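User: Show me an example of a complex going from sequences to structure tokens.

Assistant: Sure. Here are the input components:
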Amino acid sequence: MTHMISVSNLEIVGRRRHGPAVPIVRDVSLDVAEGQMLALIGESGSGKTTIALSLLGHARAGCAISGGRIMVAGHDVTTMTAGELRAFRGRTISYVAQNAGTAFNPALSLGQQVIEPARVHWSMTRAQAEHKMIDLFRALALPDPETIGARYPHQLSGGQLQRLMAAMALVTDPEIVVFDEPTTALDVTTQIEVLAAFRSVLADRGITGVYVTHDLAVVAQIADHAVVLRHGQVRESGPVAEILGNPRDDYTRELVAACRIPPRTTFPAPVLDRAVETVLDLSGVIVGYGRLDAAGLPERRILDEVSLSVPRGSTLGIIGESGCGKSTLARTISGLQPWAAGQVTFRGEALAPDIARRTREQRRRLQIVAQNADMVLNPAWRIGASIERVLTFFRGLKGAEARNEAARLLDMVRLPHALLDRLPGELSGGQKQRINFARALAARPDLVLCDEITAALDPVVAAAILELMAELQRELGISYIFITHDLHAVRAVCDDVAVLYGGKVVEHNSSQSLTTGAHHPYTRLLVSSVPEMRAGWLTEAMTARQAGRPEPLQVAPQGGCRFFPRCDVRMPGTCDHNPVPVQILPGGARIACFTNAAALVPDGDDGSCPDFHNRPISGTDSPEEVRHDDPASF
Amino acid sequence: MKVRVSLPSATQRVGMLFGFWLVLAMFGPLLAPYAPGQIIDTQVFAPISHQHWLGTDYLGRDLGSRLLYAVRYTVLICTLSTAFSCGCGILLGVATTATPAWVEQVAGRLMDGILSIPSLLCALLVIAAFGDSLMALVLTMGVIYTPGAYRTSRALALRIARMDYITVAMARGEGRLFIIWREILPNMRGPLLADVGLRFIYAVLLLSNLSFLGLGVQPPLVDLGSLVRENVLGLVYGAVAVVLPTIVIAVLTVGINLVLDATAGRRS
Amino acid sequence: MSAGLARLVARRIGTALCSLVFVVVAIFFMTAALPGDVADMLLGQNATPAAAQALRHSLHLDQPLWLRFMHWCAGMLHGDPGTSLLTGRPVSEMLAPRLYNSLLLAGATTVVSVPLALLLGLACATWRDTHFDRVMTVLTLGVVSVPAFLIATVAVFVFAVQFRIVPALSDIRSIHSVGQFILTFAMPVSTLASITMAQMIRMIRACMIDVFSAPYIEMAVLKGVPPIRIVLHHALPNAIGPVANAIALSLSSLLGGVVVIETIFNYPGLAQLMVDSVMLRDVPIIQSCALLFCLTYLFLTTLADIVALASVRKGRGA
């Protein structure tokens, strides 16, 4: 077999202004056969993007290729002149960047940018290029392929931009395309569509590809071979099935394990309907901005009549795509975003909307752990000072007493005491997130609000944090609200889950029943969009999805259900006008949908009792199959 | 390969350089062999000699002594006015992140107003109105550079106030003063120091220009700008009396600017 | 879309008007409210109480301040800025030729400095961290860190005194040919231009480096787009706003430079008149000159902001 790409003993060094050269990539060798897709797997800082860019002969500022050979489509990239590289890039090999939102020039129309590679390489006339572009748009399932090129980047969604970027890469019919985490910044429901679009155009054209990612489930869908990288070195390489199914390297094994966190198995009590004291209860909370309507409520709502409850000692997951109001919910509960209507009850007491009017005791018992570990610890304070401040503030501990308690808290989050005298800048992301947790625990809270705490962490580190959370819950009996967009994490740590869409809770259910029983159509879309770490999942999911699914509408609904335009069981005339009813199922789950709960159940479940733990998934004779396709029934 | 010994940090270097000038301004005149106004030689624009290390000026006064006094006035006036502008600017800039919106509105409009008069013009106007006493000079330059300090510190404070650790402190229920003083200010130190340095340079430039125009420091007092002005006739002979003060101004401003530039480069 | 832009522009103009009011009030009250008694100063030794009283009356100095302010504003609106205290000539008559001269100087400087600074700033950013860039950085840093008079003095010393290429003073009445024009203007314009350019180059370089670090520039490189096209087609459209701002800010610092340069070269412009008037406390002239300078400054900064707003909006497809 001929190798389209052949990299041997690649070395890349980076250097700061006058500092010594630091190796970023060490002795990396890899081969890609023609028409194959190679995945470069690794966490942040593993050198995967650096290697991908080196295939195009590009090194970012401060980096330099210092050794090795890179053969791409018969060219020795390391010996090419600047002019040769220009002719090579975008023609023989092209690149799809991670964040299409910033990789497109905001000042130029998209069409101009998409055909630019063809124009600068003189490979075709403008008319030919535009024709080609429209064909590609069509193949990538973009809406309005004829006219979308006239628009500007800010007018399109992330998923659409990412497909346009792929069109830009393919317009010159290159032999190789490098994808650099093209779906990482997207919501899962969008990711699946983009992945499917990529895969189909690549397969049609027999293009050789390199796919950079940290997501093993995505690798399983799209790649043939994989290389696992860590600290700039190859840990393991081989066919994808081999690496995912039978990893030989310790690190690879860890990585695979992190993606297969077992769903939570230990439950304190039956979910939702148990007669346990609720720690936190939200009812009818409205947060918004803009003019006030007749009832004195804001016109534009970020949160619309949100009702939730968290039983003592349990974890409530809040899930939804970006812009659904998750972060506003966190700010609302923590008293940083006053609400316009509704009530929040904490341990039986009504909470004031404004932090200043909450009692010290209330503030102590409700702690937040915020998303970005890099910004959550004051960089001017030593770790010890950050924790001791909380101890002094809430518990009046001072001096040696506070110091000892801070050390005890570090034990609790499994960190060495030496860190107390460090500054946050000297810690790793995972360590900072643990400190962050320890600081919340220092107040001895009843409820900890975790806002996307694993989003910025590498999977192995994130898995360890989730494990720590569960452990602390067992030891201390605290409750959590766990805000995330990661369904795996929800299943791993949550008892209940609330699904947020457009500022509304569309479903409040037990987290274990997410794959079975009656669900809101959005929940089903969400669940069915999360890639699974096995080959063939994407094909199955897409076939299931394409059958009988109505086209998404481009118009925003005027009233009624916000999910209406994307819903697969929508009933025009009803769903888009009337207020949405909330159905309470016998198990206590709540679903806000017009369609009868019984009809929302996939695969012949009777829908009356969503308390099934490991209910087997059957998938054939649903009575509803004709009326609406169910993406979850694979 | 350059060998690098452990150098003082950027902040320390700015501090050391500024400290040197301040010490020179305070104690330099003690080294002056003559009184600044004393005419000691009949030869004007005398070259460097054993007797007059730096020669004499257009009236035959000892240039070395006058230069030491000139450094004193330039550095002290500019230090005071920078202290005034940065003190007011930073205080207002940081405080308005925590005050009601209308305070910020009023302060912002006022600053915009001051900013909309070019600085040299503004100085000319004030001098036309209040005269050119040292106090007036310090206050004028102080007011002129307050809006700049206000804007920088406000932008910095706002950026830091958006950080999650501020959110956490607010959720904990910390008071506004604690948040400003303990959480925000310590993180502004580096960039603020650079800004203060910049304002100091601006002040030196403005004062020198004013004095050169004859509207700044007035005789019998002397600063670097007026030293150049009074000896400018010596330019034709390339006299030390006009070249040296020029060099001293350049060394003062370029030196601080170079150090600041290096710190800015390092931060980014 | 364009309605949004119009609203933003309107708001920016509103802010400018606010500043204008501030400037007018500040100029009047700073100059008119506080100078020692002008009448006494004018009459000097011969001041008798009666004469001083009469003079005060003729100058309307016996009226309350706010009334004088109203008169002054009304006069300005009608294009009548009053009469000089010292010469007794109408201010407008004294100002007009000076304004023309100053505009000539500023205009010539702008024409020279803006394109050159754009080119050099772009070049510095494009060839960042090369020898060319380092030399330019040190040069521009040097120029912006020394007072304007210093540049001018050194220039006079080198070109007029040492090499005698150009006259040290600008006598614009003696211009009869293009060659003379260039010789006369060479010194003040080149000094002024070097000061303005240094600042512009620094700011344009910073703006462009900012744009060059954007992911879409890397994307363009990876598409095989030639460097010139990257600079002109990809980077420049995104830098228009900040660059316009940099140019406006530097041009307004030119106003400060003009004051110094006109004095040094004895150039009969507005700024020189103003400096002289400050020394002589000729209030009406100071007021008018200051107002002219502030108006120019306000106009430039506002224009730059509007250009920036429009360019951002255009990029957003408005």
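The lines above are the inputs; the final block is the predicted structure for all three components together. The first strand of chain A starts at residue 3 and ends at 14.
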